[in-house]
Amino acid sequence: MKEIKEIIKAYNLAVQHNEKTALATVVKVEGSSYRQPGARMLITENGALTGAISGGCLEGDALKKAQMVIFKQQSMLVTYDTTDDDDAKFGVGLGCNGIIHILIEPIVENKENNPIQLLKACTTNRAPKVLVTLFDLKNNRASQPGTLLLFQEKETISSQAFKQIKTEVQNSILEACSTVFTHNKTLIQSIEQSNFTAFVENMQPSIRLNIIGAGNDVLPLVKLAKAMGWDIVIADGRSDLVTPTRFPEAISLLRGKANEVAAQLKVDRKTAVVLMSHNFNYDLEILKGLYPYKCPYIGVLGPKKKLLKLMEQLANHGIVLQEKEENLIFGPMGLDIGAESPEEIALSILSEVKAVMAGNVGGHLRAKNGPIHQI
How many other C-beta atoms can be found within 10 angstroms of the C-beta atom of residue 197? Predict the structure, then answer.
């Protein structure tokens, strides 16, 4: 979501300067690639780039093609076959051993529900959404339908291109959206009764990190989380530490007693709570106030015996956790990377949070038998 927000910001700036733009989106990957479907890059007519579609190898060629798209005002599907040694002649040999399909669309500012407007709608709240990009692999030189539909629980936002598609094709796309929405898993599939392939993207909000504590060890955690585009909330009973000057990166600052703070904390399935107050009773009140737990990660700083004592005190207050609830609490929190300094500990904690949110275990990539990324 960070990349999307940066693209929206760059687009708004381009509009202010009357610069035409195009949006490049990785819509399908066969084999290995540095970026996966959903990676995006905004290109202006003057050559400014925001976002990335590769590790830097494709951007130059994509820029030239995007400027052609802007000039002709017609979308284009570009395929880079990095399994072909001949690609090295054109300076796009990535050594990734994959085939990357990239859709490049012109952005027309006054066109209703253009791709950027649909991306903006993805950022309006934290509700789950599904974004559909439609393309034709068999007729890649033809104008492509592109980014055309945002599917939500109570509302569907579509472009004119979607409305021009046959009803049976629309229904197939909507059915795919419903599947992605239900299972929270992106799909790339052929659409029956058409030549189209749909990139049906599971759009999730940024990770929200609720940090309980405002001591010095929190500072590197905040800076690293901000660099990854996470939404940061700081809470502490020490009002002199919870200030905008100290934490300019935070979207919200909460001050007060633990029970007051817990009542104000917002949690969802993309929220992590980390207890770093260094105050046992404060942490205990937060755990009591958050129950029943509705977020996938609660981290406790400190040794295992601290967590066991917290669980014991919860039980004394009538809160006996079941196994599925205990599995949401990580203590000591963080991956075992040999962290010692505050910066290394921050890296350990955020790595574990990211792994949990992604449903991964945080092991070595070399231990995987299959591809690094899977959709």
Answer: 20
Q: Cα 64 to chain center, whole Å?
A: 28
pLDDT recorded at residue 82: 74
Query: What Cα–Cα distance (Å) separates residue 128 from each residue in 109, 131, 292?
Result: 26, 10, 22
- Measured between alpha carbons, how far is 43 from 64 in angstroms, rounded to an integer? 10
Q: Name the burial class of residue 321, with classes exposed (0-12), middle (13-18) and buried (19+) by CB atoms within 10 angstroms of its CB.
A: middle
pLDDT single digits (tens) 87-117: 544 445 455 677 899 999 999 988 999 999 9
Q: Pick the range with the lowest mean pLDDT from 5-14, 71-80, 220-229, 363-372.
A: 363-372
Helix (H, G, I), strand (E, B), or coil: what is residue 149? strand
Give the H or E element holding residue 26: strand 21-31
Q: What is the pLDDT of residue 84?
A: 62
The b-or-e profile of 339-354 (16+ CB within 10 A means b, else e) is beeeeebbbbbbbbbb
Q: Would you say 330 and 352 are in contact if contact means Cβ atoms under 8 Å apart?
A: yes
User: What token pair was written down for 91?
Assistant: 């300076």
Instruction: Give the helix, strand, coil percentages of the chain, each rounded to 5.
Output: 35, 25, 40
Torsion over CA: 19, 160, 185, 209 (sign): positive
Model confidence at 362, pLDDT cuts 50, 70, 90, reads: confident
**From CA 27, how far away is CA 38, in angstroms rounded?**
6
